[in-house]
Amino acid sequence: MAVRLLFGAHDKDAMLFSHVFAPGAIVTDRERLFKGIVSIVAWQRDFETRYPAHSFEPLRLARSARNVVAHMRVRGEFPGSPRKLSYRIELRDHRIVAMRVSEVR
């Protein structure tokens, strides 16, 4: 459910993220590190502000008990669009504790 909420909603806010991410969650987005919900919300708001018209298209999803790897095509008004990104997500108690975003070549 956390993964579905993460990719399915636009204009994500702190309330949504408090349900999706664990309090001490860590996100690494192409070598930039964001720790905790406040930092993760700021990262997401920055993206939403700079690129308000964007979409995620699922390409591949692999799931195990505690991990999800989602390959997505992200389209928007940003350089290099569309881009293929990999989201490596670690779950604990149905919440995201770690996520690494990287470009798929």
TrEMBL record:
It comes from the Bacteria. InterPro entries: NTF2-like_dom_sf. This is SnoaL 2 domain containing protein.
